Amino acid sequence: MSNLTLPKVSFEDTAIAFSSKSNAALRKTHWLFWAMNSPFLVKWGTGAIQLGFAMHLPIKWLVKHTIFSQFCGGESIEDCQKSIDRLAEYGIGTILDYSVEGEKSEKSFEATMHETIETIRIASQKRTQIPFCVFKVTGVAPFALLEKVQAKQPLTEDENIAWQKAQKRVETICTEAYLQKVRLFIDAEESWIQNTIDDLAYAMMRKFNQEMPVIYNTYQMYCHATLGDLKKAYTQAEQEGYHLGAKVVRGAYMERERARAEAKGYQDPIQPTKEASDKDFNAAIAFCAENIARIGLCAGTHNEDSSYWLVSLMEKNSISPKNPNVYFAQLFGMSDHISYNLAKAGYNVAKYVPYGPVKAVIPYLFRRAAENTSVAGQTSRELTLIQKEVKRRSKVGK
């Protein structure tokens, strides 16, 4: 029986959810989510932005002060400080995410490695403000090379050298996290390179997670095999005596996964229904809560039911809201009704705060816009809550 009674949380409290926003900021957010609620406007807008950058039109200012400012902290770590401080005022941590994508040169891979190490060093100086750092393996290694390694295809001499360099970059980043005692997420990616990423993550856990979860792998529960993979990873960690770091998410590559499976004629790795993904997500965080002595859990979710479920699991398993091995996480600019209400109630919460040059983070921004449009009810829910807060403020005269 649990002897711990946890604070009650309501995601309907818009006064708390939008407490950090002025009336002007709230109106701006309302306009953005209204636009993203229209698939036509999202498609037209992303096309116009792509064309504008391709034609070298002066649109950076417009992008920076609309969709970029909603979903990104700034163009550099220094630019993010205002967002970091603002979130910290409300008890929310920051996960600095250098979101430059699609780089392919060794020079860019080295630059990403050094940038990630810098985020770790900044986090070590601001532990309460920045509880985690994160990187993508494709930020420090060629996608095609990871794909070839997973397919167990023979590598050329140059590819072998590139692979050695890639592994060294991953280890260098993880070593810095260990030395600075900063928890580090390794993000999940497409299934046809994910096994290679898993192998790298577990090798780093064996080396650096002996005393506490420092290195975290990411588990995408929209793949039907992932729940089993998580349980196997825990068994392996238990047998070998290290802590498992688990960031549990639903996932972000569904359309690409299904298209590739169909094109290449193999079994679709994606769950048959959203309900199946939800079921496995909730089962995964329940498994982690039951084994929290050896697992560091970050539940990355914008789903209210799953957030309530984790709160109930913490009470059932007598896990304090401030247990450092349990975090809730949402993306910057989204689901503030979850983040701010959980933080107000005393739970550990962090926001993914992407940053990077405006033009370079455009792929990330387009994914956010598309995700908000494609996830049933996501933007409508955000819009409804914003409208509710606008009405509340008009009544109280704020």
Description:
This protein has one domain: Alpha-Beta Barrel (TIM Barrel). Helices cover 56% and strands 11% of the residues. It is built from 16 helices and 8 strands. An 8-stranded parallel beta barrel has the order 1-2-3-4-5-6-7-8, surrounded by 7 helices. Helix 14 links the parallel strand 7 and strand 8. Helix 10 packs parallel to helix 12. The longest helix has 24 residues. The termini are far apart. The mean pLDDT is 92.
Task: Walk me through the topology.
Blueprint: H1 14-17, H2 23-36, H3 39-54, H4 60-71, H5 81-89, E1 93-98, H6 106-125, E2 132-135, H7 143-150, H8 157-180, E3 183-186, H9 191-208, E4 215-220, H10 226-240, E5 244-249, H11 254-264, H12 274-290, E6 295-300, H13 304-316, E7 326-331, H14 336-344, E8 349-355, H15 362-374, H16 378-396
Parallel strand pairs: 1-2, 1-8, 2-3, 3-4, 4-5, 5-6, 6-7, 7-8
Helix pairs in contact: 2-16, 3-15, 6-8, 7-9, 10-12, 12-13
Fill in the keyword field for this structure.
398 residues; alpha/beta; TIM Barrel; 8-stranded parallel barrel; 8 strands; globular
